[in-house]
Amino acid sequence: MKVAIVGGTGAFGRALAQRLAELGVDDVIVGSRDPDRARATAGELGVEGGRNQDIVGDAELVVLAVRSNATLETAANLADAIGNTPVLCVASDVRFTDAGVLPGRHQGSLAEEVARIVRAPVASGFQSFAAANVIDGDPGDALICGEDSDAKTRALELAERLGARAIDVGPLANSRALEGMTSVILNVNRRYKAHAGIRLTGLP
Ligand SMILES: NC(=O)c1ccc[n+]([C@@H]2O[C@H](COP(=O)([O-])OP(=O)(O)OC[C@H]3O[C@@H](n4cnc5c(N)ncnc54)[C@H](OP(=O)(O)O)[C@@H]3O)[C@@H](O)[C@H]2O)c1
């Protein structure tokens, strides 16, 4: 599968690219707003790189891995370049306060908003993966939602390649729960100095 990682110079996109490159089963392209930065990261990882808008066109899955508060603006800027290529949204809104990390929104989800912006089918998942655990090949369960679409199938495939147990958790609106869980995990990480992930019990 050809995977284009928008924002692939960041902590999470880079972790995905590094692990996929090590596994050697997918074509990986890392993107950036700055082509030199993309090429520098790509060179370090031994993959391809380029400007975000130039890498999404011929991918089979676009992973939207820019900083969360740039997700919607980036989706709008890239909508035409992405066209109908399936998108995986990994973003969560969170708010850092003195009392701890809080969910960043009261309703809806970033993934549902992305789905309203782009023409392509959108899946949401990987919010419970820690970049460090992706690199180690043990990211935990991958809870992935989306309507019946290529996007979800490809996201589930990608999760399994990364060593996760890939679990379909229903329609895209369930991204509200996946994104909401991020603040829970970040509080756990702070409290226990950990890189926590999620594992469901009771599955066959
Ligand atoms: N970090 C994790 O462990 C983790 C785990 C699961 C999910 N996620 C999700 O993955 C996404 C990326 O997280 P991250 O920690 O990798 O973030 P990050 O390192 O802060 O940023 C990722 C990339 O976003 C791009 N970016 C920054 N500002 C931008 C803007 N205004 N417009 C467009 N692009 C911009 C930058 O790329 P260029 O400057 O090169 O364009 C940057 O390298 C987030 O949505 C996060 O919620 C992260």
Description:
The chain has 204 residues and is an alpha/beta fold. It has one domain (2-192): NAD(P)-binding Rossmann-like Domain (Rossmann fold). 41% of the residues lie in helices and 21% in strands. The protein has helices spanning 11-23, 35-45, 52-55, 71-82, 110-117, 131-136, 150-161, 175-192; strands at residues 2-6, 27-32, 48-51, 61-64, 87-89, 94-97, 100-103, 122-124, 141-146, 165-168. The strands form two sheets. Strands 3-2-1-4-5-8-9-10 form an eight-stranded mixed β-sheet, with helices on both faces. It has a two-stranded antiparallel sheet with strand order 6-7. β1, α1 (11-23) and β2 form a beta-alpha-beta unit. α4 (71-82) runs parallel beside α5. The protein is globular, with a radius of gyration of 16 Å. It starts with a strand and ends in a 12-residue tail after the last helix. The mean pLDDT is 97. Bound molecules: NADP nicotinamide-adenine-dinucleotide phosphate (NAP). The site of NADP nicotinamide-adenine-dinucleotide phosphate has 25 residues, from α1 and α4.
